[in-house]
Write a sequence for this structure.
């Protein structure tokens, strides 16, 4: 694991200079090794970096923000920690641009679950920040999006808009499928390139899901 930047990470370098970057952002209680299992099947021209969340969850997990399952209203998310993690992720990406031989205009992000929630929140807050956004088993938390009321005008005024691949299991017992679907009308209003896929699975990534995601990314990176 690399510890030279503000967040810890592991990397599979690209075989070319000025490479596209794919940042992998794991879910709650997982770690940087989880999504890195995808790296061997990702186009070797892409520099793959898997980042570790800042809040440790022993014995080996980490989180981007706390989730309290015993709160009176059910599940409570610490949105202040979530916003701080969004800031840390953007700082980390800027550090990668300065230290790696990558194309700063071809930054792509893939998040799972809690990582997908943050990936979408950053992408909706900064329409031109990512080239491609892959959100697996997450949802759009509008409370984390900066200036949500001006979302459509900000996308119209941006230099370019991100492309979105969003997928979810119809039997997900962690994040309900109905939550994931709420992003679709928003994407329709923004008139962006997006694909929403559903699979008859729970909270995870099936081989079919991965295949569809990889095909989509290969066509756009």
């Amino acid at each position: 694991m690399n510890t030279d930047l503000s967040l810890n990470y592991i990397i599979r370098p690209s075989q070319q200079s000025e490479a596209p970057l794919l940042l992998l952002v794991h879910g709650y209680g997982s770690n940087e090794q989880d999504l890195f299992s995808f790296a061997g099947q990702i186009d070797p021209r892409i520099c793959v970096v898997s980042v570790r969340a800042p809040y440790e969850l022993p014995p080996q997990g980490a989180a981007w923000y706390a989730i309290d399952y015993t709160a009176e209203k059910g599940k409570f998310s610490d949105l202040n920690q979530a916003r701080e993690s969004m800031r840390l992720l953007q700082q980390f990406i800027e550090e990668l641009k300065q230290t790696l031989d990558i194309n700063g205009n071809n930054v792509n992000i893939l998040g799972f679950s809690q990582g997908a929630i943050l990936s979408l929140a950053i992408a909706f807050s900064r329409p031109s920040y990512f080239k491609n956004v892959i959100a697996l088993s997450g949802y759009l938390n509008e409370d984390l999006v900066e200036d949500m009321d001006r979302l459509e005008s900000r996308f119209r005024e941006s230099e370019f808009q991100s492309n979105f691949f969003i997928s979810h299991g119809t039997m997900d017992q962690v994040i309900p499928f109905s939550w994931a679907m709420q992003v679709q009308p928003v994407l329709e209003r923004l008139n962006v390139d997006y694909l929403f896929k559903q699979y008859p699975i729970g909270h995870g990534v099936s081989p079919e899901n991965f295949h569809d995601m990889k095909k989509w990314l290969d066509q756009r990176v």
